[in-house]
């Protein structure tokens, strides 16, 4: 009796995830983004592709860090071919730098619109197009309604969308699957070594649908993310399995 | 099928145009003058001036005496050609082959066009009534040859439509001037008593040639259709062109959309049948008030999909001003390319940058925000950071060389670099601290310098010493200093980017 109840609850949970736009991932098409424990924070323990990710930046330095982090994720998304579209109205991204994160800059199409309101229109059109691996949208404003439109477009096409919000003053509610911030941290070198080390970030998952928010420290080393465990982090990020137990 | 030509004679071209502009001139004698050997000569008149006896070639002073109150305007050379070109474009609604027939006429090749208006008589009637409605006094002529149509339009009293093969009979009663001959020849013919073409048309060719020269024979036989004569169209006819003429002028958006969709569909079916796709298309619309406008699109990929092309046009429908109504749509495809086989995409798995889907997306975006806002970068062999990536519009172009991986470059680049106040303890070392936008950053770790010189063969200038600097909070910056070893120059510092 108990077993059947458990099965029913499990099935309901799975259905709920499906209705909320999370596609169950078959084991063979499961992609690992090398994010380590961060992937465990998401439902089904997999980084959601075909979803909308929102990145909040309050300073240009953070925007650079987010750019690097997104490029690292894009490396995996672009593995199967395809192109990526980068939409912005005040773009400062320097294409050759993306090569360091494993992305060929010539596989990104940059669309630099002159009016801010066109950014979301172009983003929506791009998200509707199935031939695209990922869409990155740099914008300042994103209302709930606009994010919902983007989310609906994604549910049809299963394209991964990244919204990079610069100069955010008000944290409004959006329909995004996850809300992140990425801040640069002091790079670590062996004591006594001069110079600047590998890019090192504090990645905060502020909100995630059906998942567990948390904070992690990551480093980008040899074309891959390297997770740097910190003692207090393990307390903040309890094992996700406990919720289902 | 015999050719059919229409010649239109604008008898009072310049004065009619002036009267359209200024309605008050309609009832007044008007003449155009041009300077000639220090005096003003009349070169064009209107019908009222003509009644008073003013003729072309007369001195302006004489015209003033003959017609008191005559309005004289000075003309600019080439004005008639300009007007005729405009009228020729207007005439494109009747036939795609229109030629400007200087100084005062137009030639139209209407072969196979007249049935669209319900016959030759109705065709000419429609044309004449519309041109009269615009305010022009015209005389048309229709015949199998250009020469005969020209002659009939200018010299015939009646019978403006010469039946098929009836050139000889039509030319007989006309004066020799109808054969487009030079003034000296006309005077010679007149002196000999040839007042009609009929009086010398039966003479043998060799006799005519000996007496009057080869040009006259050529003109005569061209008018009769025994020598070839060609029409040089004003616009090269576009091979892929479709048009729809509407019985009733339309103005609402829905009807315009339906019409344009049907038009695109016709063109696409034709292109599909020939294995082509269009790369650019121009939609021209003619309004009933004589104005016209056009919208054009371009695609990144040869396309023959009606819905896609329609969507591109639909983005621009806001620019279409129907006014009182649109009566004609012309869709031209000036650039077509063989459409590639769709099957090879199936093998590739996920589509690449040049796939049809992506190309269509970029068409849509380009139509809305402008094509020059879409960039794709390819590596260039330059060290200077601003030149390291080249912009390309082509989606299929692949990089010739690899992207450099050995140099560390910032993800965010400031263009142009912004000056900072920096303090360095030792020369050739990274600064200890800097102030940027009123914020003080204390540098704890730094890499560098990486010296990048201006490429002297492109641009003059010094070098930059770049440092990767990390401040206390862990923010990483790309700073550079200008040369400090040149006499009379102190090192200035700039921030050029942010590292992740």
Automatic annotation (TrEMBL), chain A:
Domain of life where this protein originates: Bacteria
Protein name: Protein ImuA
Organism, scientific name: Mucilaginibacter pineti
Taxonomic lineage of the native organism: Bacteria, Pseudomonadati, Bacteroidota, Sphingobacteriia, Sphingobacteriales
Automatic annotation (TrEMBL), chain B:
Signal peptide: none
InterPro entries xrefs: DNA/RNA_pol_sf, Rev_trsase/Diguanyl_cyclase, SulA_CellDiv_inhibitor, UmuC
Keywords annotated in UniProt: DNA damage
Presence of keyword DNA damage: yes
Pfam families noted in UniProt: IMS
Family affiliation: Belongs to the DNA polymerase type-Y family.
UniProt-recorded name of the protein: Protein ImuB
Organism: Mucilaginibacter pineti
Species classification: Bacteria, Pseudomonadati, Bacteroidota, Sphingobacteriia, Sphingobacteriales
């Amino acid at each position: 009796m108990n077993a059947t109840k458990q099965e029913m609850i499990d099935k309901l949970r799975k259905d709920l995830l499906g209705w909320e736009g999370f596609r169950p991932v078959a084991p063979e098409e499961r992609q690992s983004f090398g994010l380590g424990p961060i992937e465990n924070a998401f439902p089904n323990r997999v980084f959601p592709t075909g979803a909308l990710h929102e990145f909040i930046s309050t300073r240009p330095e953070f925007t650079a860090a987010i750019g690097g982090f997104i490029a690292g994720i894009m490396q995996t998304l672009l593995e199967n071919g395809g192109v990526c579209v980068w939409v912005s109205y005040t773009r400062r991204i320097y294409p050759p730098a993306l090569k360091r994160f494993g992305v060929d800059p010539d596989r990104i199409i940059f669309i630099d619109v002159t009016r801010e309101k066109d950014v979301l229109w172009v983003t929506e059109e791009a998200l509707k197009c199935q031939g695209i691996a990922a869409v990155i949208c740099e914008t300042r404003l994103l209302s709930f309604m606009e994010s919902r439109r983007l989310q609906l477009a994604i549910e049809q096409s299963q394209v991964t969308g990244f919204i990079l919000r610069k100069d955010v003053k008000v944290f409004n509610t959006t329909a995004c699957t996850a809300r992140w911030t990425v801040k640069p941290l002091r790079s670590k070198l062996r004591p006594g070594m001069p110079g600047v080390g590998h890019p090192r970030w504090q990645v905060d998952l502020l909100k995630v649908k059906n998942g567990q928010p948390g904070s992690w420290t990551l480093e980008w080393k040899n074309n891959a993310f390297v997770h740097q465990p910190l003692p207090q982090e393990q307390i903040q990020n309890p094992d996700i399995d406990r919720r289902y137990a | 099928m015999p050719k059919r030509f229409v010649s239109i004679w604008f008898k009072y071209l310049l004065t009619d145009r002036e009267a359209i502009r200024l309605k008050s001139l309609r009832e007044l004698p008007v003449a155009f003058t041009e300077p000639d050997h220090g005096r003003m000569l009349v070169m064009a008149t209107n019908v009222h001036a003509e009644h008073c006896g003013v003729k072309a070639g007369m001195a302006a002073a004489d015209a003033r005496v003959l017609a008191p109150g005559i309005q004289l305007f000075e003309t600019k050379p080439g004005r008639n050609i300009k007007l005729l070109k405009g009228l020729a474009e207007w005439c494109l609604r009747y036939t795609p082959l229109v030629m400007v027939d200087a100084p005062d006429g137009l030639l139209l090749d209407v072969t196979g066009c007249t049935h669209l208006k319900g016959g030759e008589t109705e065709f000419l009637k429609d044309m004449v009534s519309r041109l009269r409605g615009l305010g022009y006094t015209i005389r048309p002529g229709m015949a199998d040859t250009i020469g005969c149509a020209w002659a009939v339009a200018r010299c015939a009293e009646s019978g403006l439509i010469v039946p098929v093969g009836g050139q000889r009979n039509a030319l007989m009663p006309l004066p020799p001037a109808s054969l487009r001959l030079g003034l000296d020849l006309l005077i010679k013919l007149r002196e000999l008593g040839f007042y009609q073409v009929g009086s010398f048309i039966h003479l043998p060719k060799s006799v005519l040639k000996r007496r009057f020269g080869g040009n006259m024979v050529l003109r005569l036989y061209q008018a009769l259709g025994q020598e070839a004569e060609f029409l040089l169209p004003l616009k090269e006819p576009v091979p892929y062109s479709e048009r729809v003429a509407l019985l009733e002028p339309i103005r609402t958006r829905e009807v315009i959309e339906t019409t344009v969709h049907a038009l695109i569909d016709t063109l696409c079916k034709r292109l599909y049948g020939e294995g082509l796709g269009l790369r650019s298309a121009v939609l021209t619309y003619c309004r009933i008030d004589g104005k016209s406008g056009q919208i054009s699109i371009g695609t990144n990929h040869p396309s023959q999909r009606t819905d896609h092309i329609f969507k591109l046009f639909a983005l621009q429908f806001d620019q279409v001003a129907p006014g009182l109504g649109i009566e004609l749509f012309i869709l031209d495809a000036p650039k077509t390319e063989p459409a590639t086989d769709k099957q090879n995409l199936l093998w590739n798995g996920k589509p690449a940058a040049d796939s049809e889907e992506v190309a269509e997306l970029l068409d849509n975006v380009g139509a809305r925000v402008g094509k020059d806002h879409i960039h794709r970068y390819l590596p260039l062999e330059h060290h200077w950071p601003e030149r390291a990536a080249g912009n390309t519009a082509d989606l299929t172009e692949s990089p010739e060389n690899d992207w450099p991986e050995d140099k560390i470059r910032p993800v965010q680049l400031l263009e142009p670099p912004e000056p900072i106040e920096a303090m360095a303890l030792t020369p050739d070392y990274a600064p200890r601290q800097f102030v940027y936008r009123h914020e003080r950053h204390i540098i704890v770790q730094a890499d560098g310098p990486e010296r990048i010189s201006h490429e002297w063969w492109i641009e003059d200038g010094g070098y930059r010493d770049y440092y990767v600097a990390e401040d206390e909070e862990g923010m990483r910056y790309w700073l550079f200093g200008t040369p400090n070893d040149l006499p009379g120059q102190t090192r200035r510092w700039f921030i050029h980017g942010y590292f992740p």
